Amino acid sequence: MTREGLSPATFLARAGRPPRDPCAGGVEGTGRAEPEPLTEPVFLSSVYRFEDLEQVDAVWEGRRTGFVYRRFGHSNAATLERLAAGLEGAEEAVACSSGMAALLAALLAHVRSGQVVVAQAGLYGGTRVLLAEHLSRLGVELVCAARPEADAFREVIARLGREGRSIAALLVESISNPVLEVAELDALGELAQAEGLLLVVDNTFATPLGCRPLTFGPALVIHSATKYLGGHADVSAGLVAGPRDLVAPCRAAAVSLGATVSPLDAWLTVRGLRTLHLRFARQQATAAAVASWLEGRPGVERVLYPGLPSHPTHGRALRVLEGPGAVVSFELTGGEDGVARLVRRLRLISFAPSLGDPETTIMYPARTSHRALSPEELREAGVGPGLVRLSAGLEDVHDILADLEQALTF
Questions:
Q1: Which of 33, 96, 148, 387 could cysteine-pair with 101, CB 3.0–4.6 Å?
Q2: Is 71 a catalytic residue?
């Protein structure tokens, strides 16, 4: 259930609107409410006018509802933020221009120069580049734990403590990109609270329907809404959700950076969210079928999918997740040559460096999401030369399996 007492499906289909109160007052003299659009319009204004100094002060200081300037917020962003917060069971959310902008706002808001972020080794390549190359210039250091497990993080925290280092945050992905390790969120939540550290969870692959990290304790939850939440490959947006006192500094950072979401992208993301429960269920079912079909196929060295008993974190997935997700990774015995051959032979499945779209897509992490990593960093992240990541779409699963079969038959 959401904070509003509705099931996620009902909450999403209604775009977060609460049930109507028949006893509420209507338009004067009629007893009926003013008609409202069933779908919120796109508000493209970049600035708002005020009647006087008292009004601008009241709006600016939050004593009166309203908006000032698009970078500070607008109606479409507010709708998206209410929807995201409700789904995650969060007090508040802030909508940003991309998933990376959301992560950057969260880190700049809560990490100071000279502090350390402890993250799992198998991070999304862009996240690793942000921390190791860009935030390092501001004095923020990245230190990796070998696995997204409490014991691995505890070892790093103890070592850094002995060295007198200041740790600001723990960073994990609920389902990692691209080897699909499931983070030990229950134990990591306890560890973060015991150590007085901020836990940051990238929940993009799991979505709020597959995992709600805030059930395991206070945290900041990050989404690349470009993926499943928007769901149609036409959005660039990100979200930070969590307790109000943790999100408020993230909002201030996003506003200062100019990293808040545009009205059209916010509107499109809300449009996509209204069918997330239907899309994600179909995509997960297809991913499970593809993963099972791939296991034991000639030319496929290993299959990585949290829903398979063979996955190293399958047991944890049953404990932490509501579903194993809609991404399948698999490694071809032919290495990069095998990947190139597969890409050339596919007829229906598109080669595209994203996920969560209506079409089934594949991508090659070594050349796309993780191409900036060194060979050693690729090995640390589990990205081998034959690793392929498949994002299940909405097509008939038999068509997808037939395309894979003809492409893998050499």
A1: 96
A2: yes
